Amino acid sequence: MADFTFLHPSWLLALLPLAVLLPWLAQRRAQTGLIAAHLQPENRQPSQKTRRLALLLLSVGWILAVVAMAGPSWQKQLLPASHLSGARVIIMDMSNSMYATDLPPNRLTQARYKAMDLLPHWQEGSTGLIVYAGDGYIISPLTADSATLSHLIPGLSPAILPIQGSNAAAGVKAAIDLLMKAGRPQGDLILITDGLSEKEARQTDQLLENKQYRLSILAVATPQGAPVTMPDGRLLQDNQGNTVVSKMHPRRLETLAANHDGIMVRWRGNDQDILALIRATTHLSAQSEQAQDKTIEEKLNGGFWLLIPLILLALPACRKGIAFSCLLLLFLPVEKSMASPWLNQEQAAYQHYQQQEYQAAAELFQSPAWQGAAKYQAGDYEGAIESLSGLTDPASRYNLANAYAQAGQLDKARDIYQDLLSADPDNTDAKTNLDIVEQQLRQQQANQQGQQGQQGQQGQDSPSGQQAGNSSRDNSEGSDSGQQQSSQQNSQTGQSDQTASAPAGGAQPEGQSRQDEQSQSASDHNNEGAAEPSRPSAENQQSPQAGDLSQAGSDSNPAISPDSEGQAPMAPTDEQAQPNADQSDQPIAGNNEDSGDETNGLSASHPTLKKLEQIPDSTRELLRAQIILQAREKPAPDAPENRW
């Protein structure tokens, strides 16, 4: 019993009230009141023995409770002195200045490459990931699986952060909090940045003061600096309209790293900078492994054993029926847990989106990209254009072009596709959709020229034209669909590529005379490659439906009219509809196969023709949603010194 001690001896002071309470209870009469004791029934007077037993039980229970709270300890266990195993956190700068081009293609790309190069060298221990701009955000907590971080880093960019600016101290603070919550009083902080202002360096130095965290810095910039070229191609300017030239101050970074036992390494085109950081961060891990051989004694709290006799003493105090009532509580019906009331607005919107309730999702989404995708899926192409117009990232621009195409504004869609291809010539999705839109524009131009030729031939009568007109009218009485198909074929002569328009031969009505087929074939052959002004007078007497179809195709919607079933889509399409960060999946273009069977064709009501859909880069969108949720839970940060 030499090791017996109290872990919380101050609780023993609670025994003093018992020393005062017991004498008072012993001297108190068993019963007080107006009725004299000798007049009360014999069975109502408690015996002296019962009174003494009650006082004894009260005293024992009081003492047991106080001693249990004091934490009696007579056992101990051995614990390792430390267990660090190389805990580290990567802190990445995501301010707009990372778009500067002094390192090809820009600083952001090189920073992501270097961060991914570091991960394979850290086989032991755990690694976390923090990003910052105007504030700091946790991308990944400490994890021993570096492959997880390698999937997250490519999706990082300033575009996913809600607050722009540069606040390195906020990123360092988030990293310190992450390590402290994980029980790591020591560790490495690897700051990947293009530079710090004096205020940032001072605040970071104050945060790390008196803490056992080592700060190493990888400077991804040059002292000469370069203009900041935003993703849309424009140069970043300050409030006075001057072009921002972001420069690195190496002396400031070297001083900060040296103050906290770290190193500052400049970016290099080889792996020398990576190896230097690895050597610096693995030194602490070796010290940690040596420290694991040391142990410390921790005393165990045995006070919980005193709860057993304390409960037994309390049982007689329970009135009859209380135990039974407590037993009934175990069988009371419990309502099923509901997760939906605890969803935030963005999560509820995404749930509606997954359930294909696009209109409800569009009303709940606050992200313009997601809102535009939901409106697009709901068929509100004008609303999708309104939501996506203010966004400048390539994915949103791509989706905006799709919305323009579905809304019938092919010129604007073509311009955006061309801009995307000029910035990224390898964007096969934009290339495919651009080809389809240009084909639609050529078809519209041919239709307009055909209509002008028809107007020029009005009033001119010829025997052959009259005969052809009579034949056309006779055939229209036999089959309305045959007349529409024939008239559409006439209006589309001059189009050599039949991707967006199925040939009319397979859909020719059986009631059409062979003479009209030969006449129509000769007319198409003579006018192939251009829309000739002179047309047979039969075309001048086409039905209103055919004229409306041509007009609709040129003015309102690139999709095919319901009267032209059996033809392939005229607009670019995709198979998904979530907002995207990268166009990595192939779009569904028009149907290139000729078919005369209308049941195998795509009508205008087909979902493929109604929606231009985009497969999202789910990693980037999930990161954006994660950061937005963190930003809502944190107080608003101080205004940054600048926007870059």
Automatic annotation (TrEMBL):
PANTHER family recorded: SPORE GERMINATION PROTEIN (PTHR22550), VWFA DOMAIN-CONTAINING PROTEIN (PTHR22550:SF14)
Superkingdom as given in the UniProt entry: Bacteria
TM segment ranges: 6-26, 53-74
Residue ranges constituting the VWFA domain according to the UniProt record: 89-195
PROSITE patterns, A to Z: TPR
Short name of one Pfam family: TPR_14
Protein name, per record: VWFA domain-containing protein
Annotated region (Disordered), positions in chain: 442-617
Species of the source: Photobacterium halotolerans
Ranges annotated as biased composition (Polar residues): 575-586
SUPFAM superfamilies found in the cross-reference section: TPR-like, vWA-like
Keywords annotated in UniProt: Membrane, TPR repeat, Transmembrane, Transmembrane helix
InterPro entries: TPR-like_helical_dom_sf, TPR_rpt, UPF0353/GerABKA_families, VWF_A, vWFA_dom_sf
Comp. bias intervals (Low complexity): 442-469, 478-499
TPR repeats: 394-427
